[in-house]
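step 4 of 6: structure.
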Amino acid sequence: MPLPRPTSPHWQIYRWQIGNSLSILHRLTGVALALGLIALCYWFVALASGPQSYAAAMRVFASPLGMLVMVGWTFAFLYHLLNGVRHLFWDVGMGYERTPRHASGWLAVLGAVGLTLSVWAFIWASHRS
Amino acid sequence: MSLRSPLGRVLGLGSAKEGTGHWLAQRVSAVALIPLTLWFMFSLLALPALDYATVRAWLSYPLSGFLAVLLIAVLTHHSYLGTMEVIEDYVPSAGSKFLSLLFLRFLYVLVGGASLFAILRVAFSP
């Protein structure tokens, strides 16, 4: 029986900083969005099934817990999108230096928070009128 | 001369020989998802309401149905590649890894297939 080997990414031995925090957040938001895909599937199936099932689905999404999860998914989507663009720039060899790396990281987090608030402020405002 | 040990060679250790395809597919689908997901989000935000009749009418429009099909196809592929990587990284034993990956594959075919069928039902209903 082989001994259990240490497995990557050895998060126990690293000092927490913006680089690894945002990398972990990218994975976490990715997994959250995978669960969101199941909810999106439920929404499309309910829409195709008729007015009653669609109304039932919308009651789930419009419930307090549903709204909270939807705000979470909005942030997860916007952060994963912005940080994903960072990854694409790295893939072509751009933005590796310390200053642009940290600046783009903060831009991804704060941008996602700001855009999430904007989206839900817009929904709230248009829902009231 | 090979630097690999005889035991390593027998156990099949070393390069997996197939990582590049996965890596590249993840990037290509990511690029495609930038316009597709933004289109979806802004389309829903632009609708006057999200009631049954409005959303059905929007999805019945040919361009909306077509882009929704593309969105689900690319999104399920990208999401499958990502969650697969998470399982490969964190599920320790070979047996449970195999079963998780098998379950994941069935789940994604189910979710993708059901979503596509639902979109097409709305798109082609009179």
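step 5 of 6: annotate
 - Residues 18 and 56 of chain A are 42 Å apart (CA to CA).
 - Residues 20-128 of chain A form a domain with the 3 helical TM bundles of succinate and fumarate reductases fold (CATH 1.20.1300.10).
step 6 of 6: archive
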